[in-house]
Design a protein that fits this description.
This protein is of the alpha+beta class and 416 residues long. It has 15 helices and ten strands. Strand 1 and strand 2 (43-48) form a beta hairpin. The strands form three sheets. A five-stranded mixed sheet has the order 1-2-8-5-3, sandwiched between helices. Strands 4-10-9 form a three-stranded antiparallel sheet. A two-stranded antiparallel ribbon has the order 6-7. It is globular. The longest helix has 31 residues, at 229-259. Helix 6 (104-125) packs parallel to helix 15, helix 7 (133-149) crosses helix 8 (155-171) and helix 11 (229-259) crosses helix 12. It has one domain: Cytochrome P450 (Cytochrome p450).
Length: 416
Amino acid sequence: MSQIPRDRNLDSTLALLSDGYRFISKRCDQHQSDIFETRLMLTKAVCMRGAEAARLFYDGDRLTRKGSMPMPVLKLLQDKGSVQQMDGQAHRHRKRMFMDLMTPVSIQQIGDLFADLWRTRIERWRDRDEVVLHEEVQEILCVAVCRWAGVPLSEAEARQRTREFAAMVDGAGAVGPRNWRGLLLRARTERWGRDVIEKVRAGEIRVAEESAAHAIAWHRDPDGRLLDAKVAAVEMINLVRPTVAVAWYVTFAALALHQHPTCRARLRAGDGDYLECFVQEVRRFYPFFPLVGGRVKDGFDWKGYHFARGTWVLLDLYGTNHDARIWDEPEVFQPERFRSWDRSAFNLIPQGGGDYHQSHRCPGEWITIELMKRAVSLLTTAMDNDVPEQDLRVDLSRMPAIPKSRFVITNVRATG
């Protein structure tokens, strides 16, 4: 067996916080290898990038997500008892509950709800001096997904829930106050989630049988038992929170439209499949989550390297999406590249890779794409606006990254 290249630093935690999204790829380039070993939080970690690494990570059952995230991150993004913390048949059984919700009709429904709420907001935005798009889209998404799921949400409550879900996403890649705030607000959200589940089960909240709230509240694990109310609440949160996180992508889509006006013109002209190409390029090009972790279940060999049981493995999502061996001129925003994309499950991995039903790939990826398409269509055909001077820099050491100004628009007017 070959020796995995090793970082010389005693611990690279501070370097990860400094380099952010570029941490793994930067060191892969230094080692001239797609794999290297380092220490993070004094724990040995094997870092990898590229399509072959993604195939190893997602294809098969060699890695588990248990123990693969620091507890503060786990609490914000998944939590104990969630589908992402399961393996084998138990994982596939729970995952099926989510995948059954991802029908074309259901995805169309959430897209319609989102678009209707956005159009209503345009009327409000017309009367405001400026609009912080990122914050507005978070609330639109929160209301849309809760209505779609059958979860009751008053207007006042929507603002509170949006703040909580957004804080979970924003705090997941941070150390210190941003993370602590997300954890504090998550505790409130979990109490709300348990209350919703218990009221659905008690008949105090009536939801449609085809709704997500009904599916989660009445889901039974392979042993035939209902989920514990706390676990059911976690899974409901794991449906709503990632949908609110789509606001990060929508903000980057707005930034792309601003920075690449020729794209806006082609989208307004209805250029064939260009809308989907544009959305996929936003997902490839802009930073979402930087990496994902797993633990080796049983030792195995791969490409001349040995992976011992329990080894912590980190896959570079951002670096794989910017791998020059996969993507021609990866640092250039070029939607047309997706007209010849091979649709591999292992080279475009902003939300993970592999098979939706068998692996830990995000089950809501189709919803993400649909909501992004709706948002881009609304930004290009339903409204016009000005983009005033502001700080649109994207700091790749901040995780999750976002334009510093959160994308401010002014002089909003409806056009269609």
